[in-house]
Amino acid sequence: MMNFKKTLGVVAMASVAYAAQAEVKVGFLGGFTGPIESLTPPIFEGAKLAMEHVNTQGGLLGGESIVMPSADTGCIDASAASNGADRLINSEGAVAIVGALCSGSSIAAANNVAVPAGVLMISPASTSPSISGLADNDLFYRTAPSDSFQAVKMAELLESKGIDEIVITYVNNDYGKPFAEGLEAAFSGTVAASEAHEDGKADYRSELGSLASNGVETLVVIAYADTSGQTILRQAYESGDFTQFVGSDGMVGDSLVEAVGADVLEGMIATKPGTPEVVGQSAFETEMRAKSLDPNAVFAGQAYDAAFLIALAIEQSGTADKEGLSAALRTVASAPGEIILPGEWAKAKKLIAEGKDINYQGAAGDHEFDANGDVPGLIIEMLVEDGSFVEKGEL
């Protein structure tokens, strides 16, 4: 009898130990290959930093670790995005997803997999205005502002620099087309031409020749740094038809400058979603620099916030289950409540356990989500100087 009791005790202790070490999975759906492959790693690192803060400060719920399996969308492949989301949710058992990054991937993954499965998604980088109208059952959110907002800010930036004539080339997808339409509508000067191009081609000289026939010297490229955007800029420079280049956020990466040439792109203007001057920004910067990571990498702060918010929502809901996470998300992301900054997981966990309200103010701002799951955010002016993109200030 005594040996039997000892056996039961060992089993019980093993069960407790197993429970304490259980894992909660939050997936990351990103463009590890394709047109933004050089931009994706720091975004992923930002999300993983949030997971690290959770795990080193008490874990989720009863001490469970949070882990982040990932899947590749290829950015522009709707099937890959859907398949990746399906694997994360149905094979890996992810209860929520950070991602996707490219807008078309997010739309495909949400419509085909996540929303039917009742799984929360928070994208740190999908900026298409089309996303605001998704029939998502309040399951899709984003921590980056819509391109409808960025397009207005880009128009204002161009006007402030005395640019009154532009031509636009945009990648023909859910990212490029709405952005171009928004810029054309907001720009008070003349848009002499706005033409779509297909991503992944080796030659855009025909498209550039059509745009150059208007005699306008400022070329706006709404595309991706690792594919069409890079090729277009190189061939546009070779043609000698344009004297000023302008890029959207998908173009903001030093890999672009290295590939095309620092001398070629010196003075190139661009815009990207930025991080406001809030307390959470400095906390995030300190943590990123401690790991030799760039806190200013495009969408890195937004990725940290997306992952941290998901963890907070799980803690708030009191269970590692997909049900009720969107309602919990709105609770932890909004006022009123005691302010929680990046890295303050232990503080948040204690307050939630005490039944107190919290209000997360993140690396990329205060995420007071509207009815569509959108945030207003802010846009930063970027300029290529001495071989790299440099932040020039808030627009």
UniProtKB/TrEMBL annotation:
Main location: membrane
Annotated keywords: Membrane, Signal, Transmembrane, Transmembrane helix
Superkingdom per UniProt: Bacteria
Transmembrane segments: none
Location(s) in or outside the cell: Membrane
InterPro entries in the cross-refs: ANF_lig-bd_rcpt, BCAA_transport, Leu_Ile_Val-bd, Peripla_BP_I
Domain Receptor ligand binding region: 47-376
Key word Glycosyltransferase present: no
Gene Ontology BP terms: amino acid transport
Signal peptide: 1-22
Identification of the protein by name: ABC transporter substrate-binding protein
Gene3D superfamilies in the cross-refs: 3.40.50.2300
